[in-house]
Amino acid sequence: MSEKMVLMQGNEAVAEGAIAAGVRFYAGYPITPSSEIAEIMAKRMPQVGGTFMQMEDEIASIMAIVGASMAGKKVLTATSGPGFSLMQEGLGYACMVEAPIVILDSMRYGPSTGMATKVSQMDLMQTRWGTHGDHWVIVLSPSSVEESYQLTIRAVNLAEKYRNPVIVLSDETISHLREPIGISIPPTIVDRRLPTKKAGYLPYKTDESLVPTVANVGTGFRTSFTGLVHGESGFQTANGHVAEALVERLRDKLFNNLDDIIQFETDRVEDADILFMSFGITARGVSESVESLRSHGRKAGSLRFITLFPFDDDRVRKAAGNARTIVVPELNSGQLVLLVKRVFGDSRKVVPMNKINGDLISPQEILNFVREENL
Amino acid sequence: MRPDFLRCERLPNIWCPGCGNGIVLRALLEAIDQLQLDPDKVVLVSGIGCSSRAPAYTAFDNVHTLHGRAIPVATGIKMANPDLTVIVVTGDGDGSAIGGNHLIHAARRDVDITVVVFNNYNYGMTGGQASPLTPSSSITTTTPNGNLDRPFDLVKLAAGAGATYVARSGIYFTKHLVDHLKKAIAHDGFSLVDAVAQCPTYFGRFNKKGSAGQMVTSQKDWMVLKSVAEKKTPEELVGKTIIGEFVKIERHSPASAAAPKEQA
Amino acid sequence: MSNDNRFELRMTGSGGQGLILGSIILAEAAIMEGKIVTQSQVYGAEARGGTTKAELVISNKHIAYPKVTDPDLLAAMTSEGLKQYGGGISRKTRVVVDSSVMSAPDFLNEENCRGLLALPIRSTLISRLESELGLNIVLLGIIEGLTAIVHVEMLRKAVAMHIKKQFLDFNMKALDLGMEMVEAQAKTGIRI
């Protein structure tokens, strides 16, 4: 079963993963460190019968992919923190009209323009809370080039299945890292469900899945889309009960399917007395540290978040074993650790480990930290 | 006009008595009817504001987007499905302020959509604030001492940005308006119609423009047909707004765009 | 930290020397041998004309931490590159410098690195192949001559994947030149 391995850059893997998943419309705006995705899509979209557009800014980029998604295409845009900030209103709109879209955010050092070519994990909470109002998104976090490919496919599939924006939260290091990956096995593809009967068509009426079957525009169903609160008809209303039902459904369509959406990767959690919880590129330093600690007789383990959001406290608690100490290394001033503390309260010793100088956390630094903090 | 182009169950509309938006909407539906477009293939896309509520009263696919963002959404729809007739309904604030950047870039790209600006010289929905099309010295809630800024000339703005069809009309001249909407929609390329309407509730009241009816009929006094204006001196045209067709050119087709190479 | 089979390479110089491409070529040669690699580089304006850095990790098994932490080999093609990215070396690190553009750094000695090889890379390239281009490929030849990290034939194959046909001959000569320079150095036994 040895698959031919090819050397690929993280950004290239995202573009190729998107194409493999059926993405045929890309709109974007140049920004380091995600620009290669736009460059590759500019070349590749016409080759596969798709459309590439360079827009005037990131606001236009996200709105253009929402429009193309409404017209039935699988869509992607890619950006980094400064552009992701501009995309927030479009993200909220896509949540509200339930347009399947995928956004790749390659985290660079923030805030503001920050350091364009340096890595961080400072956008974590922005993916969850960046746009105003109660809303829910799916956020996936690759930690390698291979996983950038696989998770982009998964992101497109989840977006289509749940009619929801999905964010692939990558970073500068993974975006520009080259690793061998095998991509010759055709992926599983999921398509959005569409309405079958025009008679009695209500775009936002749902069955037990809570996912509506909104028609693509131009297919004769004559749908009304709006970012205003709307009922099953799609039309605006100021009825508080309708609003409540809508926002609850936007949550429940994801939260009723957490088994399908949430993925962790665990390593020797069962007997661990010190557990590292991390995501993305940081998990790779962790992995080596766990190996090293184990080789010195220390019972270390790792839990890596592949799905960051939805974040389910119960699942995290169950997956975390009984380690008395939980270390949360991340390339920010403490974002994931807020969630971990919420899960465990005072029942475990939860220790943040933060690095904010634009470099990765190396395995040696983790070992030093464990020693110096007497963990 | 075909009544089945409206979702009558959604009426009455939210517009104030005497608002001009209904007349522009009617003209638009009339144009779509006269062009005999397949209603299943027409998509109306709007932003936020009074005029942007118009599409939801129609029986077409309609997309009420965010403030200023109708044009990029329309661009995405059109590029994803070029068989559709995509019409943007926007206001002067939505289209030329918060959405102004999208407007000029869509014109530059010459994407084949039609933008209809329901121009009532102020932000109606939020209470009559100044827009980029509010004339100098006019009173609005955010220019209580008179507007210090100059307005955009939307026609020149669109033309300068590369639009291949640009026209202006007013609701007093309904046949003129319908005709130019038809030409704009039928045009292959980016088209814009500056459709001048009235906001009697705010702009009209603050600037003592009289009743809604007077605001409509006064258009015949301060609007001049382009063909007539061409025979007049600049002095005679002070304070006048010229209506008619300003740009109609072949759409831009790049000579050097190579066919994409086949996949390796 | 590094495992016995983990090989870490850091190359530094100035933008335009093709060091990033060099690291990609070596990475692909290693992949053809069934090895695992991670390749990375500094990005941004500084990578075009300014000081640049390319890194490669080669291993027989899964590479967790993808960056170079303790290089087995550091190749510096400019003194600025050595100054900026020459830190973090240890007694396992072999250092190669281009003596035609820089004097041998006095801060390197037997205490802090495994060995220093100063070769007149650029001047030899110009005198032997009458070109200023191809420095990266000569360097690959030197790395190969020093480490035999991949089979030479794989390296030739990987070079061919990235070099246009009309320049292939020249680049093969450049590769040979690099390996020759190491061999000649070994014969004379001169070690600075």
From TrEMBL, chain A:
Domain Pyruvate:ferredoxin oxidoreductase core, residue spans: 272-366
CDD domains the record matches: TPP_PYR_PFOR_IOR-alpha_like
Cleaved signal peptide residues: none
Keywords: Oxidoreductase
GO molecular function: oxidoreductase activity
Domain named Pyruvate flavodoxin/ferredoxin oxidoreductase pyrimidine binding: residues: 16-236
InterPro entries attached to this UniProt entry: 2-oxoacid_oxidoreductase, PFOR_II, Pyrv_Fd/Flavodoxin_OxRdtase_N, THDP-binding, Transketo_C/PFOR_II
NCBIfam families per the UniProt record, alphabetical: PRK08659.1 (NF006412)
Stated name of the protein: 2-oxoacid:acceptor oxidoreductase subunit alpha
Organism expressing this protein natively: Candidatus Cryosericum terrychapinii
Upper classification of the organism: Bacteria, Pseudomonadati, Caldisericota/Cryosericota group, Candidatus Cryosericota, Candidatus Cryosericia
Automatic annotation (TrEMBL), chain B:
Keywords attached to this entry: Oxidoreductase
Protein name: 2-oxoglutarate ferredoxin oxidoreductase subunit beta
PANTHER family for the chain: 2-OXOGLUTARATE OXIDOREDUCTASE SUBUNIT KORB-RELATED, 2-OXOGLUTARATE SYNTHASE SUBUNIT KORB
One of the protein's GO biological processes: small molecule metabolic process
Thiamine pyrophosphate enzyme TPP-binding domain: residues covered: 48-194
Presence of keyword Cell inner membrane: no
Species, as recorded: Candidatus Cryosericum terrychapinii
GO MF: oxidoreductase activity, acting on the aldehyde or oxo group of donors, iron-sulfur protein as acceptor; thiamine pyrophosphate binding
InterPro entries referenced in this protein's UniProt entry, alphabetically: 2-oxoacid:Fd_oxidoreductase, THDP-binding, TPP_enzyme_TPP-bd
TrEMBL record, chain C:
Pfam families, per database record: POR
InterPro entries the record matches: 2-oxoglutarate_synth_KorC, Pyrv/ketoisovalerate_OxRed_cat, Pyrv_flavodox_OxRed_cen
Source taxon at top rank: Bacteria
Domain Pyruvate/ketoisovalerate oxidoreductase catalytic: 15-180
GO MF terms held by the record: oxidoreductase activity, acting on the aldehyde or oxo group of donors
Keywords: Oxidoreductase
Matches recorded under PANTHER family: 2-OXOGLUTARATE SYNTHASE SUBUNIT KORC
This protein's name: 2-oxoacid:ferredoxin oxidoreductase subunit gamma
